[in-house]
Amino acid sequence: MSANEQVLRYPIPNDRALDPPAEWAELRGRCPVAHVELPSGDRATLLTRYEDVRKVLADPRFTRQLTAPDAARLSAEGGGVFSSEMAQIIPDGGEEHQHWRRLVGKWFTAKRMSALRPSMARIAEELIDEMVERGAPGDLRAALGFPLPVYVICDMLGVPAADRDRFSYWSDTLLNLTRYGKAETEAAQAEFFQYMSEHVTAKRAEPGEDLLSELIAVGGPEDGGLSDVQILVTGMGLLVAGHETTANMIGKMVSMLLADRGRWERLLADPSLVRTAVEETLRLDANSGFGLPRYLPEETEVSGTTLPRGTTVVCSMAAANRDESAFEAAAEMDLSRSPNPHLAFGVGAHSCLGQSLARTELQVVLEVLLRRLPSLELAVPVEELERVEGLAVGGLRTVPVRW
Length: 403
Fold this sequence. Notes:
With about 400 residues, this protein is an alpha+beta fold. Helix content is about 45%, strand content about 10%. The protein is built from 16 helices and ten strands. Helix 5 runs parallel beside helix 16 (about 355-370), helix 8 packs across helix 9 and helix 9 packs across helix 11.
């Protein structure tokens, strides 16, 4: 397959919910720098090898800012979380971006996450109680996967619990590039913006023990802090980023562990494996969504191929995470794999700010499920699990379980 005779459509279609498309291994082996056509019809370059993906993601020159005139559009509508005006408000590179990360990152330290564990476990217990009360079979995605991260991030932002459902909807419109029309997306984003604006104003008048109150307390840009609109967009961004990704991952993680009963039994026998099991499901997640787009403002060489300035690159972390040159028995799930330097959270200056939050949520959910529902099993054959349609974040439509 020479680079110019065939252009792959991207995302690569895949019927099986938990397995990777066959094309990944072929691309890694024979065409690690591949030409692809995005849903918008624009061309981009797809990277699937571990070293290449790592190199591009770790290079601070390459950002997700896809607003350059020659950057590829991801979807024909041109909307979505990667290219909205909101993405411009938080600085995307250089010293300003690092400053923003330092201010916000204080909230996502491992120490803070440890302190949140008891409240996360309590939320998980309550949600499982409600699911059990409704009776089997239940949908683990709707009953536990989706509400838990929203409740946790709402607590961190000091947002009233009563508003959680609206957040779920707003978040979905920002992240799903195909499910909503332009008018509906814009209306939802305007409502979300208005809500957060009022919320920040209220926090300024009456600060609480939450992330937004602390960001306000630092002061404005002249005091080394953020402007009001940056605080507002940070709140929106954390809510969106912290919601759908982890929500979907909870469902996928449990499905992957229940797909082979032996895995679940092994965790029941040795719960100390929860931490490494979570990392291994993150590495083997074949349905993680679009991958990370990066814009190259200057010519770059990757795997011996020269990529011209203005190229839009899509880094498939999920394909890279199955690269045999980086992981022994890369296609196998090893619940005790350590070290596990997977790229699920990216790497370098733009690695996922909330990764310690996501890891903690996933670990807590798994610990509580193993303790509360040891007999948990999938209520349908693995082959019947269906993927969510939509581009930015991959997930399962439902995760039917019984216990």
